[in-house]
Amino acid sequence: MNYNMLVKNMPICYDLHSHSYYSDGDLSPSDLVLRAAAKGVDVLALTDHDTTDGIAEAMIAASKSGIILIPGIEISVTWQNTLLHIVGLRIDPDNKMLQAGLEGVQKTRQERAEKIAQRFKKIGLPDAYQAVLEYAGGDIISRNHFARYLIEKGFAKDHKSAFKRYLLKGKPCYVAADWAELKDAIDWIRAAGGQAVIAHPARYQLSNAKLKALFENFSLLGGEVIEVVSSAHSPTEVTKVARLANECGLLASSGSDFHSPKAVWAELGKIRALPEGSSPVWKNWNLPSTQNQTSYCSG
Question: Are 275 and 226 in contact (CB under 8 A)?
């Protein structure tokens, strides 16, 4: 990676959570990188769900567009009956232990997609599986793909209502799944040379006590980072998550969780600065211009 393009003491924009069409994003890895560069992002992480297939293409695009690409992943995890997403940053995408772990998660994803499609037949949509296969740029099928199909068929007006009416727990098309164990996901990421991050923790709607228990368990298992700033977090949630991360001795990350240009609330580079007192994940990344520096993006 070319870190020399960063100028010492200049503000740097980090966006360490984004998706391409290899999971549930709308853009190709190349178009994602080009959009990030146009939005003022200097350091971008591609963190597709349960696959690293888009990283090679993104790396080539980043080398041409003048931004730094951080290879990443977002792994689906079950912790105390709660679905969590664990991001890995600065991974080796070719690591055998990581890829072996992802194969199991991908199999779970495939089985869940087939079961969801069966539920769709019961609500009058028999061709859902073929439709979501066409939406998916790779092998990863997510609930976002099914939500898109519901919107196109007039069953929902947007993704939020599609999930609320059909795809959340207790709704007609919801299917539970046993995802990776938290310890396993952290171990895979560490084996690949990366740092494990709890993505958008406020989104899981855990009590303060349970959220702190999660952070403590995560740290004990070798996790290092909390995604403090996210498009899914309100200012109040950012403050709360930052405080808990500091109490648990964890580093802080920031990311838009970009999926689509249509989702303007989660635009690339539209990120608040980390709260004062947070210890940024990039502080030990040996980027000469960014030591101990918070990020400054358009948000």
Answer: no
